[in-house]
Write a structure and sequence with these properties.
The complex is a heterodimer of chains A (228) and B (512). Chain A is of the alpha/beta class and 228 residues long. Chain A has nine helices and five strands. In chain A, strand 3 (158-162), helix 7 and strand 4 form a beta-alpha-beta unit. In chain B, helix 3 (70-79) crosses helix 9, helix 10 runs parallel beside helix 11 (358-373) and helix 12 packs across helix 15. The chains are: A alpha/beta (228), B alpha/beta (512). The structure holds cobalamin (B12).
Chain lengths: 228, 512
Amino acid sequence: MNKDIIATIKENVIQGRKTQEDVGIDDSLEGAPGVVELMQQALESNISPQVIITKGLTAGMQVVGEKYSTKEYFIPDMLASAEAVGAAMDIMKPVLESANVETKGKFAIATVKGDIHDIGKNIVAILLKGAGYEVHDLGTDVPTEKVVEFVREEKPGYLGLSALLTTTMTEMGVVIKALEENKLRSSVKVLIGGAAVSDEFAQEIGADAYCADAFDAVRVLDGCQQTG
Amino acid sequence: MPRKGILVDRPYERLTREQVELIHQASMQILTDPGLISFNREAVDILHSHGAAVESIAGDHQSWQVKIPEQVVLSAIDSAPKTVKLGARNPDNTLIMHGDEPRVYLVTGSETNIWLDVDFPTYVNKADPTREIRMPEFKPRRGTVDDLCQSAHVCEHLEMVDGYIRTVNIQDRDITEENKDVNKFFASLNNNTKHFMSGLTSLKQLDNVVRMAELIAGGKKALEDNPIISFITCLVKSPLQFVDDTTDTFIEVCRRGLPIVVSSSPQAGTTAPIREAGIMAQINAEVLAGITLGQLVKPGTPVLYGSVPVRARMDTLGDSYGSVETSQYNIDCVQMARFYGLPNYSTSGVCDSKIPGQQSSIERLFSDIVVAMSGPQYLHCAFGLLDCNSVFCLLQAVLDDAHFKMIELFLRQPRIDQTELEAVLKQIREVVATPQKLYIGYIRPVLRSGEISGLYPFEGGGEADDVFELAYERMKELLARPVEHIDPETTARIFEEIPGVLPRLNIYERGD
Ligand code: B12
C-alpha cells in the first residue's frame, strides 16, 4: 500500500501533475489524485518524509531530468514537475521541521538593481524549489542594501544573482563587495547567471560560481551539498 | 528624394477583417480589465489626468493599476501621425512611411553582446594529404566600438540596407554607462549616412545625443525637418507592465518630438499566451497603451507601432525567432498597424542558429520572405544577427543583403498589361516563323536593365561551396570603400561640446 502511494507520487511527479485538476503528459491519470492530494494520503499513512522525498519526489525528478536530456521533455514539462515537487515540499515543511530533518538549505535569488529581466530568474527559482531548496525570491531591480539585509537577517546558505544587461552586471560585484564589507561574504555561496555574464566575470568579481542555466544551478548547489 | 524601399503590391495577409476587429476589441477590453500595471509615476499621472482609472498596488516597488478607457486610446490613435519621416545625414537616404502604404524599408539591428569573427583555416584530408580544403571558423568575442564603426561602414555600402539600428553593444574597457550613448551614436553616425535608430542606455545622455544630432543636421530646426536619429524603447514589460526607467526615457523622447518606436516583445508561452489570439490581443494592447501615453505627452509625436512578438523555445524558454509562429505573429501585427493606419516596425530574419550556415540561412530567409510580403513599413530584418539576437556577424550581414536583393526582385509588381502583351505576341509570331525558333535575340534589351535577376552572387566554381569565402571577399571589398564621414568642422564641434566621445574616434586627429 505504502509502496503504491510512493510509486504513484513518483509517477505524478514524472507527469508533472501537482493536483488532480492538472493534465499530465498523457491522459492516463486524468482526474486521479495529483502530488498534493497524494502527499496528504502519504502523511496520513505515516510514511516517513525521507522515504517520500527520496523514493517519490527525487526519484521522479531524476526521471524527468533524464527525459529532458534526451529531448523527450521540454522546459514546460520540467517546470510542471518542479512545481509539483515544490508544492509537496511546502506540505512537508512543518513535518520536516518538527522531525528536525534538514532541508537542502535556503537559497535567496534576486535580479540586481537596474535590471528587470526575470524570466530566467523565475525558472531558476522554480527548479531549485523543485530540487528541494527553500527558495526566497527577492524580485527584480533589487537594491544592494536589500540583498545584504536579507543575508544578514535570514542567513541563507546560497545567494543567486541574475543580470541580463552589461550595464547592470557590475551590480553583482557591488553586492559581493557589500557582503564583504558587512562581514557576511563567508556565510553565503554566491551564484551568478544571465545572458551578460560568464565564468571569467564570476571570477573577476569573486562570485563562487557562474551558472549557464537552471540545471547548472541545481548541479552546482547539489555539488556544494556533497562537499559540505 | 526618399529611398525607394520595396513597395509590396498586394500584401500577404493572414487575418480576415473580422479577425482584425476581434483582436482590436479584445485589446480594448484588456486595457480596462485587467488594465496595465505601471511602475512609472509620471505615466500614471498623465493617463489619470486624461481619464484613466488608477489604483495603487501594494508592494516593494511602487506601482499602479491603470485602466485606460477605449475613447482615450482611440483619440490617441487619431492624433498619431499616419506618415512618419525618418531623416538621414544624406537626404537621399530619407525614409518616408505611410501607414496605409505597404512600402518596406529594411533595417539592421540590434545591440548584440557578441561579435563573431571569421577565419578560414586550411584542413588536410587524413586519408589523402594532397587534398586540402578551407573551412570557415567562427570565433565569438565581446563587441567593441571599433566593431560598431566597421558594421556601420559596411552597412553604408550594403545596397538593401535602408536604415541603421546599432548592431553591437560596445563593451570596451573605457566605455561606461555615462559615455556609452554618445559613443554609439557618434560611431554609427560618423560611418553611415543612413537613418540611425537606437535605444538609450542612460536618460542623462538624451540631451547630449540630441545635441550631437543637431550639430550634424545643422541646428535644432534642421533636425526637426530632417530627424537623422530616432529612438526605440521597450517601455512595456510583458504582460502589460510599464517599466519605470524605460518609460521615463520614452516620455522624455516624446517631449522632444523625435520619432520613437513603441515596441513590445512578448514571448508566447512565457510572457504571453501560447495561443495566437492571446499573444495578439495582448501585444496590440501593450503597443496601443504606449502609443496612447506618447500622444498624451505630446500630441502628434511621430511613433511607429513596434512589434517584436516571438514564440518561446521549448528547450530553454529563450526567444525562438526561427519558429514559424514568430513570423505569423509579426505578420498579424503588420495587419493590426495597418488597420490603425500607423507605420509599423516589425521583425524578421533573426535566427536561432549560432553561426552562419544552413540552419541560419533557412530560418532567416523563411521569415524574411514571408514577413516582407506582408508589407511592414520598417522591417527590422536583423542583417547579420544570430543566436536569437545575441550574436552579430558581419559576414552574415553581407549574405543577407544579397538575399534581400532576391526578395526585392521577387516582390516587384508583375508587368502584365495590354502594351506588354501586344509586344510579346509580336515576338512570339516572329520567332515561331524563324528556322531556329529561339528568343535569345530579345534578351539583350532587358539583360542589363535590372529587370532580370542575376546569378547567385556567391556561387563558387566546380563542386565546392565557396559562399562564405566569396561573401568574405565582398565584405573586405566594402570595408575598403570609403564612407562619407562627418566633416572636420562639425567633428571638432562635437568633440568640443559633447562630453565623453572617445578621442580615438576622431578620425581627423588620428591622421587616417
Ligand atoms: C525577454 C527580454 C526582455 C523583456 C524582459 C521580460 C522579462 N519578464 O524578463 C523586456 C522586453 C522587458 C526587456 C527589456 C529590456 N531589454 Co531585454 N531581453 C530579453 C531577451 C530577448 C531574452 C531574455 C530571457 O528572458 N531569456 C530567457 C531566459 C530563460 O534565459 P536567461 O534569462 O538567460 O536565464 C537563464 C540563464 O541565463 C540562467 N540564469 C539567469 N539568471 C540566473 C541567476 C542565477 C543565480 C543562476 C544560477 C542562473 C541564472 O538560468 C536561466 C534559466 O535557464 C534578451 C536576449 C537574450 N539573448 O538574453 C534581451 C536582452 C537581455 N535585453 C536587452 C536590452 C538592451 C533591454 C532593454 C535595455 C531595452 C531597451 N532599450 O529598452 C530593456 C531593459 C530594461 C531594464 N532596465 O532591465 C539586451 C541587453 C544588451 C546589453 N546591453 O547587455 C538583450 C541581450 C537583447 C539584445 N540583444 O538587444 N528585455
